[in-house]
Design a protein that fits this description.
Keywords: Phosphoprotein. One of its GO terms (cellular component) is plasma membrane. The protein is α/β, with parallel strands linked by helices. The protein contains ten helices and ten strands. The structure holds magnesium ion (MG).
Length: about 350
């Protein structure tokens, strides 16, 4: 994916007067991130401990195993952030049977995409149909044949990995490897909702690279792309808390979401971002702001209410603050004023 044109929304982002002796393209090292491969996680749910033991023993060499001896315990485990990649689910259990557990897992947006394989002594066509209708991907009949379990588990783990990968790619910006606009459009309403529910402030930062159009025009798109990558990475490196989020909004714009963060905290983060990008020291001889690439940031940080989630008003406010940062001279942070 190329950044073939600058889509600056800032009309006055015209190139500054070029210096008499234009500098050569700055050399930019291309950092690479290693792809980490983790062991897949399997949740085994069965009310008979010996069944759990047999399955866990067979699977533990290749997979990380979690176990639950009942439906309620399984659902509780699934509320943890570390979700399994596959669930082996017994049907016949006291209190809550496997069908009911499956129904609840498939109804929850946080767990619906985890594949479920039913384990059962019941093997009639109707039973299997019920299971598939509830959203199970496969069926294993007891007594358990270990090679069959291993083969089926391996197939479904592979498929799950593939679909996770596709899902992730669809949410990634191809140029910078950070989240894309689509991911942001999913994340922001969710964070607004959460902030409204928890009664905590939410901060949104809109970020734009100053005079990027002239940077691109003078140094070329290859150097422009590299600049976008490095700015994206330095933003990502500044964000410290696990819930903090950055996406490429488009062109040379980025959007940061800081959950549970007030305007003082957001201002601190924004100033850190501005320093981090300046410290990259990417030469920009065609900017009238500084000798290197700089960014402007607009912030809106406040309590949100349930009504303003779609469209996210807070993002529009951050955007308006960014416009002010631009018109007031760039390379600066502007916090939206209350009631503005
Ligand atoms: Mg049972």
């Amino acid at each position: 994916m190329k950044n073939t044109k600058s889509s600056s929304r800032f009309a006055d982002d015209a190139p500054a007067d070029p210096p008499a002796d234009p500098p050569a393209d700055p050399p930019l090292p291309a950092p690479t991130a290693p792809i980490q491969r983790q062991r897949a996680r399997i949740l085994i749910v069965d009310d008979t401990p010996v069944n759990i033991q047999i399955l866990a023993q067979a699977l533990t060499k290749e997979y990380d195993i979690a176990v639950a001896t009942g439906g309620a315990a399984a659902l509780e485990l699934l509320r943890q952030p570390d979700k399994p990649d596959l669930i082996l689910l017994d049907i016949m259990m006291p209190e809550m049977d496997g069908h009911e557990v499956c129904r609840r897992i498939k109804k929850d947006p946080a767990t619906w995409d985890i594949p479920i394989i039913f384990l059962t002594a019941k093997g009639t066509v109707e039973d299997q149909q019920t299971g598939f209708n509830l959203g199970a991907v496969d069926y294993i009949t007891k007594p358990i044949e270990i090679p069959v379990v291993l083969a089926r588990v391996s197939v479904h783990i592979r498929l799950k990995r593939k679909s996770d990968q596709l899902e992730k790619l669809a949410m990634l910006d191809g140029l910078t490897d950070i989240a894309n606009r689509r991911a942001l459009d999913e994340m922001l309403p969710r964070e607004c909702l959460r902030a409204a529910r928890d009664g905590v402030p939410l901060a949104v930062l809109m970020i734009d690279i100053d005079h990027f159009k002239s940077f691109n025009d003078h140094y070329g798109h290859g150097v422009g792309d590299e600049c976008l990558r490095r700015v994206a990475q330095s933003i990502e490196a500044v964000l410290q808390r696990p819930g903090d989020f950055v996406a490429r909004y488009g062109g040379e714009e980025f959007c940061v979401i800081l959950p549970n963060c007030d305007s003082a905290g957001a201002l601190q983060v924004a100033e850190n971002l501005r320093s981090a990008v300046a410290a990259l020291d990417i030469p920009h001889a065609y900017s009238n702001v500084a000798r290197q690439v700089t960014i402007s940031i607009g912030i809106s940080a406040r309590q949100v209410t349930g009504q303003e989630i779609c469209p996210p008003v807070i993002q529009q406010e951050a955007d308006a603050a960014l416009y002010r940062a631009k018109s007031e001279g760039r390379n600066r942070v502007v916090v939206r004023e209350e009631g503005a």
